[in-house]
Design a protein that fits this description.
394 residues; mainly alpha; Growth Hormone, Chain: A; 2 domains; globular
């Protein structure tokens, strides 16, 4: 095959992989913004919905290392093809008013979301060739955009057409396997290995500290996404759910865009110093989101908050993967990603049970400023204690 044709085919495959990631994670973005609407529709306690959402967060992260280990057993990227089909279950939550049926659908959808990611990431790595430093971030950014799109689409759909026609949102998931077949992504891929970018390592930093930073940042995001619409609906009524969906979408989109800038800066200055400064900037913006008294003020705070909220998470994942020893690269990255977001989901579950004992959603959100300030303090301490230059062999 002529080289230009091969290059064009790989670019097309990468585009399809990004769209697949966007679609799968769009379904993942449905649940948390719809917690207050589903609580009322299913007639359950808030703690039941937050427990379900938290369980899904743990499941989707815990299943990824397992999926990555069993994926090579199959002759084709079967899990990558199965993921979008299972994820469609998230669009079926409007077909029933039984909490337990909804729980089964949501859990099945999150299994699909989880099993898609290892195969998808390896496929993006493969089709990117020597330009994986560009191709893999393109694939990953699809997830950020998709989760944000899910938040805004689901909340506006429920506020407009309603749950009765919610199943129509499953149609994009049916298109993805067709795109796989059209571009050859359903065939077996050869996962090549390329020399990773060395960057600037954090000499001597224990993996546990990096996991703590990741968990603190993920906890803030999980709690904000879980309880923002709860407090908005309590203060302004059902229409405010669409406000929250827009705000969540904007924070996610700005976080995705900001992550490229954070990655660029982290290669030149201390990542720990960046995290500390970013979290301190985040505190007043976060409190403005929590105290927003109109749609305009909420949106105005969400955009800058998204830029500093968790943009350093990608560089942190890369740093953690470089410093851990004795595991495969995918499993090292999987531990920091799965552990952080799984821990954040557990924090959201605990906060949900606190609301059963008189703690308001607004109080839960304000209390998370402690986690933000703790993140800044830990990052600052690591910055001060690991400022010596790395050796040439690092």
């Amino acid at each position: 095959m002529p080289l230009p044709s091969l290059v064009s085919r790989r670019r097309l495959q990468l585009l399809v992989l990004m769209l697949a990631h966007l679609t799968v994670d769009m379904y993942g973005g449905f649940l948390m913004p719809l917690i207050p609407a589903l609580r009322d529709r299913l007639d359950v306690r808030l703690s039941a919905m937050t427990a379900l959402a938290g369980t899904c967060g743990i499941l989707v992260n815990a299943i990824q290392p397992f999926a990555g280990m069993i994926s090579p057993v199959f002759r084709r990227p079967l899990l990558m093809m199965l993921g979008p089909v299972l994820a469609i279950c998230m669009a079926l939550i409007g077909t029933t008013q039984s909490f337990w049926v909804v729980a089964v659908l949501v859990l099945a959808g999150h299994v699909g979301i989880g099993v898609f990611h290892p195969d998808g990431l390896m496929a993006a790595h493969s089709v990117s060739g020597a330009k994986e430093h560009l191709g893999v971030p393109v694939f990953l950014s699809g997830g950020f955009f998709g989760f944000s799109l899910g938040a805004i689409v689901s909340t506006h759909w429920v506020s407009g057409p309603g749950f009765g026609s919610f199943w129509m949102l499953g149609l994009p998931g049916l298109v993805i396997p067709m795109l796989y077949a059209a571009t050859g992504l359903n065939a077996r891929l050869t996962y090549e290995s390329h020399e990773p970018s060395r960057g600037r390592p954090a000499d001597g930093v224990a993996f546990g500290w990096l996991l703590l930073l990741g968990t603190l940042m993920a906890s803030t995001v999980c709690v904000l996404y879980t309880f923002l619409n709860v407090t908005l609906e309590a203060r302004f009524g059902r229409p405010a759910i669409a406000w929250g969906g827009t705000a969540i979408a904007l924070t996610g989109l700005c976080g995705a865009l900001g992550s490229y800038g954070w990655g660029y800066l982290s290669a030149r200055v201390s990542l720990f110093g960046l995290i500390a400064a970013g979290q301190l900037l985040y505190v007043p913006l976060y409190l403005r989101i929590v105290a927003a008294d109109s749609r305009t003020s909420l949106i105005a705070a969400s955009i800058p908050a998204g830029l500093v909220m968790g943009g350093a998470f990608f560089p942190l994942v890369a740093m953690a993967a470089r410093r851990a020893r004795g595991l495969t690269p995918g499993l090292r990255a999987g531990l920091i990603v799965g552990g952080s977001w799984g821990g954040g989901s557990i924090v959201a579950i605990v906060c949900g049970f606190l609301t059963d004992h008189g703690v308001t959603a607004t109080a839960v959100l304000r209390g998370m400023t402690v986690a933000i300030l703790t993140t800044a303090a830990v990052a600052a301490a690591l910055w001060l204690t690991h400022r010596r230059p790395a050796s040439p062999d690092a």
